[in-house]
Amino acid sequence: MEKSCTLLVHFDKGTPALTNEIKEALEGSDIPAKIDALKKAIMLLLNGETIPQLFITVIRYVLPSEDHTIQKLLLLYFEIIDKTDAKGKVLHEMILICQNLLNNLNHPNEYIRGVTLRFLCRLKETEVIEPLIPSVLSNLEHRHPFVRRNAILAVMSIYKLPQGEQLLDNAPDLIEKVLSTEQDPSAKRNAFLMLFNSAQERAVNYLFTHIERINDWGEQLQMVVLELIRKVCRTNKAEKGKYIKIIISLLNAPSAAVTYECAGTLVSLSSAPTAIRAAANTYCQLLLSQSDNNVKLIVLDRLGELKSSHREILVAVIMDILRALSSPNLDIRRKTIDIVLDLITPRNIDEVVLMLKKEVMKTQNADQEKNGEYRQMLVQAIHSCAVKFPEVASTVVHLLMDFLGDSNVASAIDVVVFVREIIETNPKLRVSIVTRLLDTFYQIRAARVCACALWIIGEYCLSLSEVENGIATIKQCLGELPFYTPTEEGEGEDASKNSQQANSITVSSRRPAILADGTYATQSAALETAVSPPTLVQASLTSVGNLRSLILSGDFFLGAVVACTLTKLVLRLEEVQPSKVEVNKATTQALLIMVSMLQLGQSSFLPHRIDNDSYDRIVLCIRLLCNTGDKARRIWLQTCRESFVKMLADKQLQETEEIKAKAHISHAQPDDLIDFYHLKSRKGMSQLELEDEVQDDLKHATGEFVKDNDDSNKLNRILQLTGFSDPVYAEAYVTVNHYDIVLDVTVINRTKETLQNLCLELATMGDLKLVERPQNYTLAPESSKQIRANIKVSSTETGVIFGNIVYETSNVHERNVVILNDIHIDIMDYISPATCADVAFRTMWAEFEWENKVAINTVIEDENDFLNHIIKSTNMKCLTPASQLDGECGFLAANLYAKSVFGEDALVNVSIEKQADGKLTGYIRIRSKTQGIALSLGDKITLKQKGST
Fold it and tell me: Are 38 and 74 in contact (CB under 8 A)?
C-alpha cells in the first residue's frame, strides 16, 4: 500500500550518494558536511530507499548538535522515516526521538520551538505525541507569535487524530480563549480555522459576537470567515440571509483577494438582484484596479458566467466592463468585446459604439504592436453592432472606410465586407458610401479588398454622375494604356526567363489551391497570385495607380473583376445616359482596357501568362459589350444583387434560428409545484433577505435547480470488464470530465474464499495518465468493493485504458490474474460544434499540417443524408449555409468545424459525387494542428460512415 508523503524534493538519480559516505560525514565534526550528508539521506529516503543502519548514527552524532539548520533537517528526516513496524506498532527507537522533541519544545530559541511544533502537525503516532502534549499547550502562551501560531496548528492536528478527542478533550475551549486574547493576525486565523474545522458552532458564535469588527480583521482571517459562511450556508440554507449581509460588508475590504472571494461567494449563495449587482460591481472594480493580466482574464471569465444567468444586471455595468479595453493584451480585449456584444440593448448601443469608435481611432495614432489585429477585432465588433441595430451604421461607416487602405489586409477585408453589407441593408447611406468609396479607392493596397470594392462600385453606382465617376476612377487607377510597349517586352524576355525558373520551383513546392468550398483545384502558375497571401502595392508604385500595379504584378483575377465592373457600369450607363455618343465612347474605352489586359496576359512581358478562367471572363465581357441582349443585361444588373440579398437573408435566418434554439430550452416540468412568496411571512426580514427568498422560489419554479441528466446515457457508460464466469466480476461506470476521466469500478468476489491483496492495475495508451497508484484490498466471500480511479487527459485523442485484477487466496499464495476488457475513450466526449468565419477556416486549413484523407464508402445514396449522418456522428457544425446545399446536381461540398475542450480546432471538408449507379464517392479530409485529433476523427468517420439505407 502506498504511504502518504508530506514532503517533495527534486532528486537527480544520475549520481546516487553511497550510504557509507553519508555515514562517515554524519559521524564527523564538520557541520557543513553533516548538513550535506543529511540532505542526501533525506533524498534517498524520499525516493524509496530504506537506510535502517543510519538511524542510530543520526541519534548518536547528529541529535546533540545545536546548529539550527541541522535541527530543521533532523525534523524532516524524522518526518519521512518509518516509525512503525510491519504490524503497525510504534518502533521502540522512537522513545529516543521523544526526549529530543520534548527538549526542542522547551528550547530557549523560538525558531527551534516553532519548527518542532510544525513537525508535530505531520506526526500521526499517538504514542509519540502523548508525552509532548503538556509542552505543546504551554507554547500557546509563548511570547513570540511564530511559536503561538504553530502551537495552535499542532493542537488542531492532534485533535483531528482518531484518538484526538481523548488526548485533548478541552482543545476547543483552549483555542477559543486564545482567540479572544490573541493579537497576531496569523495566529488568530489559525485559531479560527481550528474552531471552524473542529467546533463549527463556536466559530459561528465568535463571528457574530465580533461582527462589527470584521472589516478590521486581517486578510487571512477574512478568507477563513468566507469559507465558514460557504460551509454553513450549504448545510443550513434557512440562515443564508444574515450571512449574505456579512459578505456584502466584506466587499469593501482593502484586499483584492477577499473582495474577489466575496463576489464569488455571493453569486454561489444568492440570486437576489442586490447581491448580484454588488458582485458585478466588485468584479468591474477588480478589472480596472488589478494590473496582472491573468487576474483580468479570470475576472472576465466570472463576468461571462454571470452574463449567462443575470444578463439584465450586467447590462447596467457594460461601460465599466468596456474600460478593460485600455489593457494592451489582445486576449483581454477579445474577451471583453465578446462579453459586451451579448449585453448590447437599444439603450446602450450608442455609448458602446462611441467607445468602439474611439478605440478604432486610437489604433490609427498609437504605434503599438498588434494594432492591426486589434483594429480588425473592433471592426468585427462594430459590424455585429450595426447588424443588430442598423441605425448606428451611419455613425461608423465613414470612419471605418478610412481603413480600406490599411496595411493589415485582414482588417481592411473586414471593413470592405462591412461596407458591402451596410450599403445593402441601409439604402439611405448608399449615395454617401459610394461617393466616399470612389474618393478613397486609390488608397486601397490589397488585391482582395480592391476586388470587393470594385463589386460594390459595379452594383451600387446607379445615377449618371456615380456611373461616370466610377468609370473615371477605374481608368485613373489603371493609368495610361497600353500596359507595356513591345520594346519593354523584348527587354523583359531575358529577365523573365530567370524569374520564371525560380517561380516554377516556388509553385511546385506550394500546396494545391483551395477553393472557397474547401475543395482542391489544380493550380496554374498564373493563378498563384490569386490564392497566395494577399498582394500589396509596393510603396514605390503607389503613384502609378493601385490597379495598374496589382495587374502588372500578375494578378489577372483582379483584372477579370475590373472587366466585370466596367461591363456593369457601361450597361447601366446605357440606361441612365441619353446621349448615345457618350455611351459608345465609354464602351470603346472599356473594350480597350479589356483588350489591353488580354494582350498583357498573353505576352512574355510578365513571368506568368493569364490563367484560362480570367481569360474566359474578360472575353465574355468583351462579347457582351459588343452584343448586349435583354436576358444578359438582367443577369448582370439584377440577378447578381439578388443572390447577395438572398445570402444576407440566409445569414440572418440562421442567426435567428440559433437564438430561438437557445431560448427554447425548458427547465420546469408541467406538474412542478410553485411556491407563492406573496403569502409568506415577512416579519424581521431585510430587503436583501426577502429578495433572496423570492429568487430561490423563482429558481425552484423555473427548474433552474434541476440539472439535465440523461438517464439513458448513464446506462450506456457502464462497461463490463470481466466475464460472468470469472472468480472476480468487475464493471466500470465511466464519467468523462473536461480534463480527467473517473472510473468507478465495482468489484465482486464470486468465490467462497477471502481474496487478499486484491489490486486493480490499470495502464493507458494515448494522452492519458493515471493520477494515483493502485491500493490493495481484502475482499470477503461474495462481497463487493467500489474502487475509484482518476485518469488525467491532456489532449483530444482516442485513448485506451487496459489492465487486470490481481489477487491472492488464503490457500494458495500464488497471485491470480484476471485480465480486463479494454475501455476505449471516445473523442466525441471532447469535441463540440463551433463556428468560425469562412476566412478563418481557410486560413487554418492552409496552416494546419496534419491531414487525414478518408475515402467515402457508404450505403447511403443521398448526398444530403450522408452529410447529415457525418455531422451527427462527428458532433461537428456545418459552416456551409443550407441554401448552398439545396438542389440536385450530383455534387456536394461542405465544410465542418468543431473545437475541443483543450482549444484545438478540427476542420473537415466533405466532397461528394453521385455516380451513375446511385453510389456516393469522394473524400472526407480532416485537418488539425495535432496528429491525434486528425487520426482519431478519421477512425471515427471510417467506423460510422457506412450508415444504413
Answer: yes
Cell numbers representing residue 886 in the block: 439545396
| Secondary structure (3-state) at 779 | strand
Q: Compute the distance between CA of residue 245 and CA of residue 256 in angstroms, rounded to an integer.
A: 19
User: Is 412 exposed, middle or buried (CB count within 10 Å of its CB: 0-12, 13-18, 19+)?
Assistant: buried
Q: At what angle do helices 293-309 and 273-289 cross, to 10 degrees?
A: 160
Q: H/E element holding 217?
A: none
- The set of residues, in sequence order, having a beta carbon less than 8 Å from that of 576 and lying 6+ positions away, is 462, 463, 464, 467
Half-sphere exposure of 799 (CA within 13 A, CB side): 23
Residues 364 and 383 sit within 8 Å (Cβ to Cβ)? no
Question: Where residue 270 falls among pLDDT bands split at 50, 70, 90?
Answer: confident
The residue among 556, 569, 573 whose CA lies nearest residue 618 is 556
Distance set, CA 315 to CA 340, 503, 647, 658, 932 (Å) = 9, 56, 32, 22, 42
For residue 823, the model assigns a pLDDT of 86
Residue 237 is given by DSSP the state G
**Any idea what DSSP says for residue 150?**
H
Grid cell of 598 as nine digits: 488580354
On average, the pLDDT of the chain sits at: 81
Residue 169 phi, psi dihedral angles, 5° rounding: -70, -25
761 neighbors 812 (Cβ within 8 angstroms): no
Element (H, E) at 238: none
* Distance in angstroms (rounded) separating the CA atoms of residues 874 and 832: 9
User: Coil, helix or strand for 733?
Assistant: strand
Residues in the chain: 949
Q: Are 173 and 206 in contact (CB under 8 A)?
A: no
- Give the separation between CA 222 and CA 207, rounded to whole angstroms: 10
What whole-number distance in Å separates Cα of residue 611 and Cα of residue 525? 8
Query: 18: buried, middle or exposed (CB in 10 Å: 19+, 13-18, 0-12)?
Result: exposed
Q: Which residues have CB under 8 Å from 322's CB, separation 6+?
A: 336, 340, 352, 355
Q: Taking the CB of residue 123, how many other CB atoms lie within 10 A of it?
A: 21
**Is residue 98 a contact partner of residue 83, using CB atoms and an 8 Å limit?**
no
Cα–Cα distance for residue pair 586/590, rounded to 1 Å? 6
At 647-704, the pLDDT tens digits run 888 888 877 777 777 665 545 556 555 555 555 555 555 556 566 666 665 555 554 4
728-736 β-sheet, strand order: 718-720, 728-736, 740-749, 784-793, 768-770
Chain Cα centroid distance, residue 852? 25
489: how many CB neighbours lie within 10 A of its CB?
16
Question: Closest Cα to residue 146, out of 187, 180, 175?
Answer: 187
Query: CA-CA distance, 266 to 283, in Å (whole number)?
Result: 12
- Whether pTM exceeds 0.90: no
Helix H or strand E segment including 187: helix 185-198
Grid cell, residue 282, equals 466588485
Look up residue 639 and give its DSSP letter: I
CA-based angle 217:222:224, to the nearest 5? 135
Q: Is the peptide bond before 134 cis (omega within 30 degrees of 0)?
A: no
Residue showing cell 493515471:
770
The pairing of beta strand 728-736 with beta strand 776-779 = unpaired
Q: Grid coordinates standing for 257?
A: 483577494
Write out the three cell numbers for 170.
Answer: 478541552
All cell numbers assigned to 924: 472526407
DSSP secondary structure code for residue 851 in this structure? E
How many angstroms separate the CA atoms of 368 and 738, rounded?
A: 37
pLDDT of 456 higher than 90: yes
For the chain, the C-alpha Rg in angstroms (whole number) is 38
**Strand 740-749 with 823-825, pairing:** unpaired
How does pLDDT run across 672-685, given as a tens digit for each residue? 555 555 555 555 55
DSSP code string of 762-800: EEEESSEEESS---EEEE-TT-EEEEEEEEEE-SS--EE
Asked if the model's pLDDT at residue 716 lies above 60, the reply is yes
| 8 Å CB contact between 264 and 236 | no
